[in-house]
Amino acid sequence: MTAIHEAELPEGGKPLLTTVAIGASCLAFVVIGALQALYGPAIPALRDEFGISPAVAGLSLSAHFVGALLGVLIYHLLRGRLNNRVLLGGSYALMAAGAAAFAFSPSWALALAGTFVIGLGFGGIDYGLNQLFAVGFGHRSTAMLNLLNGHFGIGAIAGPALIGWLGADSYPEIFIGTGVISLLILVTLGGVAAREPAPGPAAVTPAGGARVLPIIGVFIGVYVLHVAIETGVGGWEPTHLEAVGYGAATAATATSAYWAAMTIGRFVAAPISLRWSAPSILLVCCVGMAGFLLLATVPALAPYAYFGVGLMIAPIFPTCLPWLNRAVPGVGAAGAYVIAASMIGGVAFPPLLGGVIETMDVKTVPLLLFLLAVVCGALSLWLRRNAPDPGGVSRSRDCGRTDAVTTL
Asked: Tell me: the pLDDT tens digits for 160-178?
């Protein structure tokens, strides 16, 4: 069992997040995880209600991601003018308003507008809380980010399960429920620090100013590629498994297990990150992704190999963000760049992969994704050499202190 205590600044100042605010943040990630995963299962009801085709119904997720991308960028642009409580509060309110508009919309055009507004709030919450967790726990930030993003996975599993239990026609009530929870979280914002501390005069880029842009660029590459692999497996695993002889039910179950592995992997990575550096974790994850994708070319091993891919992908996003902040501490926009890049990768890559597969065979999916994992591994090696992270793991770890995460 894990007990979570208040975030402490490295210099021991006022915490960025109280215990209540940390718990509310984890609940918020359950909500945004559920929202992102609800659109697909709701498509049958949306088609019946608005008389639209599957492709048109799928625009709901596209509108959501466009809004989320803008939400990240807007939140970042406003960080210098407005404090964290205002920005997070506005994001929660937008998500609640969008959920209500989507649930009660009399037309498809207004429903799409609702998903766009949900996305605006989603992007602000995703970026804002990830940034706060990335800087608010010192060397334990990686562990706490894995815990935070693990709750996203809980929501992503629970949302479709709830629609499966209540029926697709119940999607309005489910969306309203997420909006109500978003509004309730507003009362916990008093536990969020108004602003993060400014980098001290000693905060210089370890690798030197001349390498700041290449370092950020390589981190963006890692984020785009690992999200491309993540969405590539999630989108094409069922088709690949059916092509190599598995039934539709088995393929669907294996795909659900893959997404569950993404959640499990983040919770497992939380304690590991207290003992292992971010560069080591990233390298192991990239090698693991490549190895499991090769195994997925063997039909008898493919369902289990995809589960392994999910475990390996899981820690990359929450592990690299604090490392990026430590590598380029003077570049406040770095986190916004990589989070936005991950969203662009999630939207743009599935159709690109689909186009490649049309000219080849669907059985080549694991090999295509394996090549991306190899490139991701090469980028991780470059970062290991050019953006070392000696501050990522506490040198006093052998004294057994776990102020932010304590194993009971």
From this structure: 888 888 888 888 999 999 9
Give the C-alpha separation, 106 to 262, whole Å. Answer: 36
Residue-wise burial string across 48-83, b where 16 or more C-beta atoms lie within 10 A, e elsewhere: ebbebeeeebebbbebbbbbbbbbbbbbbeebeebe
Sequence letter at residue 213: L
Q: What are the pLDDT digits (tens) for 41-83?
A: 888 888 888 998 877 887 887 889 889 999 999 999 998 889 9
The CA distance from 159 to 256, in Å, is 13
**3-state secondary structure (DSSP) of residue 329:** coil
Burial class (CB in 10 A: 0-12, 13-18, 19+), 348: middle
